[in-house]
User: Which sequence fits this backbone?
């Protein structure tokens, strides 16, 4: 199950587990993170009010293709701005998915 990290401008990080591509379609996986409507709210919609921004500052994922797709949608970079920006526990969780 891939991990997705959505970086906030204030340094917080939203972490989500997204089902594998063999469990959900690419569209379902994408909507699980990006949806923002009265009917469906994805991970970012639930957390953006705490971020002070309508889009993540950066995205990282254990699924590089998915990270690229999300980055294009949100118009933000892939990858952390600073390797030391996340707590060690997050680094360990990410490393465990590879």
Assistant:
């Amino acid at each position: 199950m891939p991990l997705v990290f959505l970086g906030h401008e204030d340094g917080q990080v939203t972490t989500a587990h997204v089902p594998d591509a063999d469990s959900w379609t690419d569209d379902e996986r994408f909507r699980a993170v990006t949806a923002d409507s009265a009917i469906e709210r994805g991970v970012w919609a639930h957390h953006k009010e705490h971020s002070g921004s309508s889009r993540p500052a950066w995205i990282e994922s254990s699924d590089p293709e998915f990270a690229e797709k999300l980055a294009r949608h949100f118009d933000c970079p892939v990858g952390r701005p600073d390797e030391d920006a996340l707590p060690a526990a997050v680094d360990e969780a990410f490393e465990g998915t590879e």
Observations:
- The CA atoms of residues 89 and 95 lie 10 Å apart.
- The chain has a mean pLDDT of 81.
- The longest strand covers residues 3-7.
